[in-house]
């Protein structure tokens, strides 16, 4: 079995609510060339065919650079394009079921906003946790606030990588540095004018 890649560093949430009809393959390629270590494809409003086609296109880029591609919510689409893994929230398929479907070779990420969810996610077979929302975000509506203190507690309780998420940008990233194993970012990368510069800045700040 191929070794699973570890999720860490600056992680791009390629959210189609933000990218819309934008040049998504070029965006992802620029971000990877500037140091992004993982890409998650998040497409809440499209039909399955559109999501699948976008995922297939993006996979060509992530494969070229050997960067893991994670699909948000949709286990079926992840299987269809042979993605590296899936990210599930607390209201998606349970992590144990996703593990049963995907087997050990795929990466599974689980969203957690408190200690119980973090510990359960790890026990259920997650490879990493997405912990947030640390700061104010407009990308996701139903977020639950996570304090830096809670992020630290979760990090101390689990062995798997902890990826901080939610409103992370160059002005607040310092607060997470040294606590989380990675930071997942959408707006601060996708809404700027210069993807390469913005990613480089985040990557340098995260260290
Ligand atoms: N889960 C918790 S907050 C969030 C997700 C998907 C949104 C992250 O996007 P942004 O734009 O970096 O706040
Ligand atoms: Mg979800």
TrEMBL record:
Domain named Thiamine phosphate synthase/TenI: residues: 10-189
Keyword terms: Magnesium, Metal-binding, Thiamine biosynthesis, Transferase
Binding site for Mg(2+): 73, 92
MF terms (GO), sorted A to Z: magnesium ion binding; thiamine-phosphate diphosphorylase activity
Cofactor list: Mg(2+)
UniProt pathway annotation: Cofactor biosynthesis; thiamine diphosphate biosynthesis; thiamine phosphate from 4-amino-2-methyl-5-diphosphomethylpyrimidine and 4-methyl-5-(2-phosphoethyl)-thiazole: step 1/1
Chain ranges passing through the membrane: none
Pfam family, one: TMP-TENI
Binding site for 2-[(2R,5Z)-2-carboxy-4-methylthiazol-5(2H)-ylidene]ethyl phosphate: 137-139, 167
EC number(s) on file: 2.5.1.3
Cofactor-binding details, from the entry: Binds 1 Mg(2+) ion per subunit.
An example Gene Ontology biological process: thiamine diphosphate biosynthetic process
Catalytic activity: 4-methyl-5-(2-phosphooxyethyl)-thiazole + 4-amino-2-methyl-5-(diphosphooxymethyl)pyrimidine + H(+) = thiamine phosphate + diphosphate; 2-(2-carboxy-4-methylthiazol-5-yl)ethyl phosphate + 4-amino-2-methyl-5-(diphosphooxymethyl)pyrimidine + 2 H(+) = thiamine phosphate + CO2 + diphosphate; 2-[(2R,5Z)-2-carboxy-4-methylthiazol-5(2H)-ylidene]ethyl phosphate + 4-amino-2-methyl-5-(diphosphooxymethyl)pyrimidine + 2 H(+) = thiamine phosphate + CO2 + diphosphate
GO cellular component, one term: cytoplasm
Residues annotated for 4-amino-2-methyl-5-(diphosphooxymethyl)pyrimidine binding in this entry: 40-44, 72, 111, 140
Role, per record: Condenses 4-methyl-5-(beta-hydroxyethyl)thiazole monophosphate (THZ-P) and 2-methyl-4-amino-5-hydroxymethyl pyrimidine pyrophosphate (HMP-PP) to form thiamine monophosphate (TMP).
PANTHER family assigned to the protein according to its UniProt record, in alphabetical order: THIAMINE BIOSYNTHETIC BIFUNCTIONAL ENZYME (PTHR20857:SF23), THIAMINE-PHOSPHATE PYROPHOSPHORYLASE (PTHR20857)
Protein name according to UniProt: Thiamine-phosphate synthase
Record organism: Anaerobranca californiensis DSM 14826
Protein encoded by which gene: thiE
